[in-house]
C-alpha cells in the first residue's frame, strides 16, 4: 500500500514564553508521521511571527503549493500553530479540504472528520473566542501550557503565590506553608476561627501585610491552589476588540486551564476540603465559635428543614434556667410545630449512642456493620457512575448534533449554537467531575480490620474522656440528626473509622420512634445500635 503524503508546518512566535521550539515541534511531527505511516515530503517553517495575522510567508507558500500537490495531510504540532483564529482555521480547512488535504495536530490528535473531533479542534483554538474546557484532560493540559494564557491580568496574587516580573505565577514557599496548613486543619476538623488564630500565631500575614481576620473560606475555594489557571473571558477583550463585561461572570465566561500554574495542594486534599466546607455550611458551623450546646448545627428539623439548636430560657418566678433544643424556623418568621427538647436528655441520648460505638466490646459488631455498609456503598457508587455515564453520553450526543449544525462561525446563529454547545459542555464537565469523586472512592474501597477500628476507638475514647473537644468529636462521628415529633434519625459518619479517605460520606442510619417531648420519660429505653 502506498504511503500517504504529509507536509509539516511549524511556527515559532517569540512573544510566547513557553513556546515549543521549532526543533521540538518538528521532532514531534516526524515521530507522529512515523507512527502513522505517513511520508513526510516537505517542511514549512515560520519563525518569530505573530500568529494572529496571515502574513506568515511560509504558511502562504504552503497554501499555494497545496493546490497542485499530492499531499494528504498537513501536520502541525498543535492546532494553534496552524492558526490562532477559529474563523481563519475554518477558512483554510475548507479550502484545503477541496484539495483533499486534512490538517492533523500531533498534540490534539483528534479525528476532525468526526463532529466530536471537529468540535474539539475548534475549541482548542480560540480561547478568547470560545468557551473551552478540557474535553480530553490529558492532551488539553499539554495544549494549555501556554505562558501567555497563564499570566495574570494584573492585580494581587492570591496568598501562597507571587507574581513574577513576567506576570507569571510562582509559589511563595513561606505562604504556601500557610495554605497547606489551612487545608490540613480543615481536614482535622478545626473551625475557621481556630485556623485564623493558628495562622496569626505562626506569623502568617495576608498579602496586604495584615493579620488574618476572616474569609479564609473563600481562600480555600481557590482552584489556583491545585494549579488551575482561571482565565476570565469576560474581563478580556473579544476578538473584535470590544469588551463584554455587561453580564455577570457565568461559568461560561471562565476558561479553566488545569496545570496552568504551579500547584500547592493535591487534588484529594483540595476536594475533600470542598466537600467538608459544603457540609459545614449546611450545619451552620462556619462561625467557629464554640457553643455550649454541643448538638447545635447537627440537628435538622425534619418538619421544616431548619436547624434545631440550643437555647436557654428562664422559667417561672424563680427564673429556673431551662436549656432546650428548639427549631429555628420561628426566628426566620415561620411556624413549626416541632416541639422543643430538653437539652440535657437529648445530649445524654446522643452520647449513649457514641458510647456504644466506642465500646471495645462491640468492636466485632462495628466491624461487621461498617463492612456491610462498605459493600452497599460500593454498589451505590457503581450505580451512580453508570447513571452519570449515561448522562454524559446523552449530552455528548446533543453536543455532536449541535456541532454538525455549526457553519462558518461568522453568523449570529452560529454564535448562538456555539454558546449552546458551551452550556452542554458545562453540564458534561460537571458530570465528569462528579463521576471522578465516585470513581476515586470506588478505587480505594476495601474492607476494614479490627486493628483499624481499635486504633481509632482508642483515639476517640481519649478525646471523649478528656472532654475537651467533644463538639469536634461529635461532628466527626455524626453527620446529621433529623428530629421529628415522634422519631429521631441519626446519620452516623463511618468515615471516622476507615483507614482510607473517601470523598463521599459513608453513613449508617439509626432511627427510632421517639416522642421528643417524652425524651425525658423514656430515657432508659434507648434502642441499642447493636442488638
Ligand atoms: Zn421545624
How do the helices and strands line up, and which of them pair or pack?
Blueprint: E1 4-12, H1 22-35, E2 38-47, H2 57-67, E3 73-76, H3 79-82, H4 86-98, E4 102-105, H5 115-125, H6 137-144, E5 161-163, E6 169-171, H7 173-187, H8 192-201, H9 216-220, E7 229-232, E8 254-257, H10 267-283, E9 299-301, E10 307-315, E11 320-327, E12 341-342, H11 343-357, H12 363-405, H13 412-444, H14 450-466, H15 470-477, E13 478-483, E14 487-493, E15 507-513
Bound molecules: zinc ion.
Descriptive report:
The protein has 531 residues and is of the alpha/beta class. The chain folds into three domains: 4-107, 3-Layer(aba) Sandwich (Rossmann fold), CATH 3.40.50.1390; 161-227 and 262-283, Hect, E3 ligase catalytic domain fold (Alpha-Beta Complex); 290-531, no CATH class. Helices cover 42% and strands 16% of the residues. It has 15 helices and 15 strands. It has helices spanning 22-35, 57-67, 79-82, 86-98, 115-125, 137-144, 173-187, 192-201, 216-220, 267-283, 343-357, 363-405, 412-444, 450-466, 470-477; strands at residues 4-12, 38-47, 73-76, 102-105, 161-163, 169-171, 229-232, 254-257, 299-301, 307-315, 320-327, 341-342, 478-483, 487-493, 507-513. The strands form four sheets. A seven-stranded mixed sheet has the order 12-11-10-9-13-14-15. A four-stranded parallel sheet has the order 2-1-3-4, sandwiched between helices. A hairpin with a 5-residue loop joins strand 9 and strand 10 (307-315). Helix 7 packs across helix 10. The model is unreliable at 50-54, 124-154, 232-254 and 284-290 (pLDDT under 50). It binds zinc ion.
Amino acid at each position: 500500500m502506498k504511503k500517504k503524503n504529509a507536509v509539516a508546518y511549524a511556527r515559532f512566535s517569540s512573544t510566547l514564553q513557553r513556546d515549543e521550539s521549532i526543533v521540538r515541534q518538528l521532532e514531534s511531527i516526524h515521530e507522529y508521521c512515523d507512527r502513522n505511516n505517513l511520508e513526510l515530503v516537505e517542511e514549512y517553517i515560520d519563525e518569530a511571527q505573530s500568529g494572529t495575522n496571515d502574513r506568515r510567508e511560509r504558511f502562504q507558500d504552503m497554501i499555494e503549493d497545496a493546490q497542485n500537490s499530492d499531499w494528504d495531510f498537513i501536520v502541525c504540532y498543535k492546532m494553534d500553530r496552524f492558526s490562532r483564529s477559529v474563523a481563519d482555521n475554518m477558512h483554510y480547512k475548507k479550502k484545503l479540504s477541496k484539495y483533499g488535504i486534512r490538517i492533523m495536530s500531533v498534540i490534539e490528535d483528534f479525528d476532525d472528520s468526526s463532529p466530536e473531533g471537529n468540535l474539539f479542534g475548534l475549541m482548542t483554538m480560540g480561547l478568547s473566542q470560545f468557551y473551552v474546557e478540557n474535553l480530553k484532560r490529558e492532551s488539553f493540559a499539554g495544549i494549555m501550557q501556554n505562558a501567555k494564557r497563564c499570566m495574570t491580568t494584573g492585580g494581587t496574587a492570591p496568598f501562597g503565590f507571587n507574581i513574577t516580573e513576567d506576570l507569571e505565577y510562582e509559589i511563595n514557599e513561606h505562604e504556601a506553608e500557610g495554605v497547606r496548613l489551612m487545608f490540613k486543619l480543615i481536614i482535622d476538623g478545626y473551625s475557621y476561627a481556630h485556623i485564623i488564630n493558628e495562622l496569626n500565631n505562626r506569623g502568617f500575614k495576608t498579602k496586604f501585610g495584615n493579620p488574618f481576620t476572616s474569609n479564609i473560606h473563600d481562600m480555600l475555594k481557590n482552584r489556583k491552589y491545585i494549579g488551575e489557571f482561571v482565565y476570565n473571558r469576560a474581563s478580556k477583550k473579544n476578538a473584535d476588540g470590544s469588551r463584554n463585561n455587561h453580564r455577570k461572570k457565568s461559568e461560561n465566561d471562565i476558561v479553566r486551564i488545569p496545570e496552568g500554574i504551579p500547584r500547592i495542594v493535591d487534588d484529594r486534599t483540595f476536594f475533600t476540603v470542598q466537600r467538608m466546607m459544603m457540609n459545614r455550611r449546611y450545619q451552620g458551623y462556619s462561625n467557629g465559635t464554640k457553643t455550649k450546646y454541643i448538638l447545635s448545627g447537627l440537628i435538622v428539623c425534619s418538619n421544616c428543614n431548619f436547624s434545631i439548636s440550643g437555647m436557654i430560657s428562664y422559667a417561672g418566678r424563680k427564673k429556673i434556667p431551662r436549656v432546650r433544643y428548639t427549631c429555628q424556623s420561628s426566628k426566620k418568621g415561620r411556624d413549626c410545630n416541632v416541639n422543643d427538647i430538653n437539652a440535657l436528655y437529648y445530649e445524654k441520648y446522643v452520647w449513649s449512642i457514641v458510647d456504644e460505638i466506642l465500646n471495645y466490646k462491640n468492636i466485632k459488631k462495628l466491624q461487621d456493620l461498617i463492612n456491610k455498609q462498605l459493600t452497599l456503598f460500593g454498589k451505590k457508587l457503581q450505580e451512580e457512575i453508570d447513571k452519570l455515564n449515561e448522562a454524559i453520553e446523552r449530552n455528548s450526543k446533543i453536543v455532536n448534533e449541535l456541532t454538525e449544525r455549526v457553519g462558518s462561525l461568522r453568523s449570529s446563529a452560529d454564535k448562538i449554537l456555539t454558546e449552546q454547545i458551551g452550556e452542554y459542555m458545562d453540564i458534561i464537565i460537571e458530570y465528569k467531575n462528579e463521576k471522578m469523586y465516585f470513581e476515586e472512592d470506588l478505587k480505594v474501597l476495601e474492607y476494614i480490620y479490627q486493628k483499624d477500628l481499635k486504633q481509632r476507638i482508642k483515639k476517640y475514647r481519649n478525646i471523649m474522656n478528656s472532654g475537651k473537644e467533644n463538639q469536634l468529636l461529635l461532628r466527626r462521628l455524626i453527620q446529621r440528626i433529623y428530629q421529628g415529633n415522634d422519631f429521631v434519625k441519626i446519620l452516623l459518619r463511618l468515615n471516622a473509622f476507615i483507614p482510607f479517605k473517601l470523598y463521599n460520606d459513608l453513613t449508617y442510619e439509626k432511627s427510632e420512634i421517639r416522642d421528643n417531648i417524652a425524651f425525658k420519660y423514656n430515657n432508659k429505653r434507648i434502642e441499642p445500635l447493636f442488638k
